[in-house]
Specification:
Length: 332
């Protein structure tokens, strides 16, 4: 190789190389650059003034945060008031929503009209991602705002395009989906193995965003005890009982709105509840208390036992005879 240089112009980097006095051109040109010394050299001809061999366009990296923060082609920002819906169960699945601010919840209604809350959503969550399925269908649930929300509505085609064209955004979205999958598994394990009291504690911690980076919310969004009961699979009266207990123990405080204290983490992480032992079987406890008394009782009853046996001795054959007669009468 006799020489290789790098020229830069605008936002492009231009390479040209000379191999033994001949120019070797590779690839297709997408841009034409004309300089005074540019020649019409063709492949295989002697290289005189210089020939561009490869043009590489240097583009800035895709900014996922900027894409999700601003409106543009195929996406718009919407504002929702509390109880307004992003979409309803049975609507066409033709868009994805990115929650920029506020809290929302995902609910489903059964055929007999019973409503259940599937999950709670916070800023930074996607909702409606089922619209990205290869065959778009109908919404399987309803997404509604818990408090004032700001969201970016992204059309299905635009979401599919940016995921295909921008690996950085596809990676960002994949991480979110994996996190949601782990959360769903944790919800299932919680429902199968934990008590309703512990499930309620976990839901309150999630709503207060414990464990997330940054400052946690001081107060959780307004939510009814009936909704909490549906989320943990118990009755409203039980939720009321647990909430009063948590407040008495200092785990939460509320005067119109609920504030979750860090001490509630002990219920979920360490399984520590005052009077927790009271929920365990009482027989081992009673046995421990009576252990020193048993020898004394045996000493008192020891001379009485032979007398009782002597009194019951003639009765035992009669009991056996009565039992046989009853067996014959019933045919057993």
């Amino acid at each position: 190789m006799s020489g290789c240089e790098l020229l830069s112009g605008g936002f492009s980097e231009v390479y040209f190389c000379v191999f033994d006095g001949f120019a070797t051109i590779q690839g297709d040109f997408k841009l034409k650059w004309r300089f005074p010394w540019h020649s019409s050299t063709i492949p295989g001809k002697p290289f005189r003034m210089g020939r561009f061999l490869k043009i590489r366009h240097t583009q800035s990296a895709f900014d996922s945060a900027s894409f999700l923060a601003n409106a543009g082609l195929g996406r718009k920002i919407i504002e929702l008031k509390p109880k307004e819906t992003f979409f309803s169960q049975g609507d066409p699945a033709n868009s994805v929503f990115y929650l920029q601010a506020g809290r929302a919840r995902l609910t489903v209604v059964s055929q007999n009209g019973k409503e259940a809350t599937i999950t709670l959503l916070s800023a930074g969550d996607f909702v409606g991602e089922e619209s990205l399925a290869s065959i778009p269908g109908l919404r399987l649930a309803t997404a509604s705002a818990v408090n004032p929300c700001t969201a970016l509505k992204i059309a299905r085609d635009e979401m599919a395009r940016v995921m295909h064209d921008e690996p950085a955004f596809a990676d960002f979205f994949l991480k979110f989906m994996l996190t949601r999958s782990m959360r769903t598994q944790a919800d299932l394990i919680d429902q199968l193995f934990n008590s309703s009291e512990k499930r309620l504690a976990r839901i309150l911690l999630i709503m207060a965003e414990f464990g997330k980076p940054g400052e946690r919310e001081t107060f959780i969004p307004p939510i009814s005890q009936e909704t909490l009961a549906g989320m943990i699979g118990t009755t409203r009266s039980r939720v009321s009982f647990f909430m009063n207990r948590f407040r008495t123990l200092g785990y939460i405080s509320y005067n119109g709105r609920i504030q979750v204290n860090r001490s509630l983490l002990n219920v979920v992480l360490l399984d520590q509840l005052p009077e927790h032992n009271a929920q365990k079987p009482l027989l081992p406890v009673i046995g421990t208390l009576l252990k020193p008394v048993i020898p004394i009782v045996e000493t008192i009853l020891k001379p009485v036992i032979p007398i009782v046996q002597t009194i019951l001795k003639p009765v035992i054959p009669l009991v056996g005879a009565v039992k046989r007669k009853l067996s014959e009468a019933t045919g057993d």
